[in-house]
Amino acid sequence: MKNSKDHTRTYVPKRSPKRGNTRNASSNLGNLSNHSQNRTDSSKKSVSISLSGNPPAAQKTWWSQKFIHTLETLKLGNRLIRGREYAKEGRVQRISLAPGQVTSLVNGSRKTPYVVSISIEPIPENTWKKISYDIAKRAIFVIEMLQDRMPESVDEVFHASRIGLFPSHVKQLRSHCDCQDEKNPCKHIAATYYILAQHFDLDPFLIFTLRGRTKSQILDFLQYFWKKGRPKLAQQMSGIPKKKILPKEVKPFWNAPHSDKVQSKLDPLSPALPDTLVKKLGPAPITLDDVNLEAVLSDTYQYISDTIREWAIKKQK
Asked: What number of other Cβ atoms are within 10 A of residue 250's Cβ?
C-alpha cells in the first residue's frame, strides 16, 4: 500500500517544501493590556472548536453564501458539486476548527474515514489590530455582532485594510486529503467546505476564527474599547453649558392620526432579556450621579419591558 503522503495535494507552488507542512500561524489579540495580551497568547495555542459533521438546519445567511460563492469563483472545478452531494449524504463525521486551520474526517469508499486538512492564509497581526478598532468604532457593527450576526457591510472595513474577509485567490487556500484522488479539491475536501458553510450560518464568528480571531477575542476587544479605548465622554460633556429643557406637548405624538396602523415586529411577550446587549458591553465610561450608565440603561430597559409586557397581557384578556 502506498504511503498516504504521496497522495497529499496542496495549493502551493511547485517549489514548496514537504507536503503536509501547511499549518498557518494564528494571530494574537489586538492592542490590549499586557495582561490581556499574555492571556490571549497562551489561550490561542489551545483554541480548537469541535463541530458536528451534521449541523442542524439553519437559515442560509449572506455570509455563508458568500463563502461558497467565493469558492465557486476560484475555479476549483466540478468537485465542489460532488462534495455538496457528499455533505448532504452526511459523509462528514466531524470537523475541528482552529485559527487558520480546519481538519475533518469524511467517510468514503474505504473502511476508515479520510483525513482532510484545510488552511487559510491568516490575516496579519497589524492588520487585525486596525480592523478591530475600525469595527469597534461603528456602533451598528457592535450591536449586530453582539447579537451573533455578521454586519453586511463589514467587508468595507476589511477592504479598507486592503484585505478580504474571505479568500480571494486560490493561493490563499491550502488543502490536502489522504485519499487516492490526485485532483484538488477532492470530493472529501469539497464536502468539508459545504459543512463548514452550514456552521457559518449558525455562528458567523467561526469565519473570524478561521482568519485568526476567536469569538472571545473579538468580544473582549469590543468590551475593552468600550471601557478604555473610547474618548472620555464625561470630560467632553463637562464643558457644555447646561440649558433648561422646556417641556414639549407630547399629547399629539401619542394621538397622531393612523398611529394604530403602525405595525411593530417586536414581541412584547418575548422571554428575551431586554438588557442583554448592554451587559455584554460591560460598564460604560460615564456615570450619572455616581451610578454607571450601564446600570441606568439596564434598569430602564427592564422597566420598559415589564410595562409593555403587562400592557400586552391585559390587552389579550
From this structure: 8
Note down the domain range covering 13.
4-227
The total number of residues shown for the chain amounts to 317
pLDDT of 231 > 70? The answer is no
Within a domain: residue 242? no
Q: Alpha helix (H) ranges present in the chain?
A: 34-44, 62-73, 79-88, 125-136, 139-146, 154-160, 187-202, 205-210, 215-224, 233-238, 251-254, 276-281, 293-316
Q: Tens digits of per-residue pLDDT, 235-267?
A: 554 555 666 666 666 666 666 666 666 666 666
- Entry pTM: 0.59
* pLDDT of 230 over the 70 cut: no
Q: Is the Cβ–Cβ distance between 26 and 214 less than 8 Å? A: no
Torsion, Cα of 193, 6, 115, 217 (10° steps): -60
DSSP codes, 22-40 = -PPPPPPP-S--HHHHHHH
Which amino acid is located at 7 in the chain? H
Tell me the C-alpha to C-alpha distance, in Å, between residue 275 and each of 11, 231, 299. Answer: 47, 24, 8
Structural domain count, the chain: 2
Of 208, 219, 230, the closest CA to residue 128 belongs to: 208
Give the mean model confidence (pLDDT) for residues 29-50. Answer: 44
pLDDT digits (tens, 9 = 90+) for 122-152: 888 889 989 998 888 887 888 788 878 888 8
Residues linked to residue 173 through DSSP beta bridges, in sequence order: 120
Is 305 contained in some domain? Answer: yes
**Does residue 257 form part of some domain?**
no
For 96-100, 214-218, 240-244, 253-257, which range has the lowest pLDDT when averaged over its residues? 240-244
